[in-house]
Amino acid sequence: MIVIGQTLSHFRITAKLGEGGMGEVYLAEDTKLQRQVALKILPAAMTDEPSAKERFLQEAIRNYQRVVDLRQDCQPPLCTWVEEANASLFRLSQTDG
Question: 25 in helix, strand or coil?
Fold first, then answer.
């Protein structure tokens, strides 16, 4: 269970933005780069399922490519894949809208 204020790796969770079948999305502060980011976190119940983790990783790759395709400034977005004891997550730059 993710709690507002909790830190995963170097991301401090600040708000829940939504959820779906493959995870929950949170607004977080990247404490290393000092910026807001969006984190999608695989539910804890699925972290021990290799097929779920593989689908989640493939989703992260697809989302990264979508962001690259949409950006007009030719600078690739930062993307991070993190696995901790009971959490798998990916991070992309947070944008409004």
Answer: strand
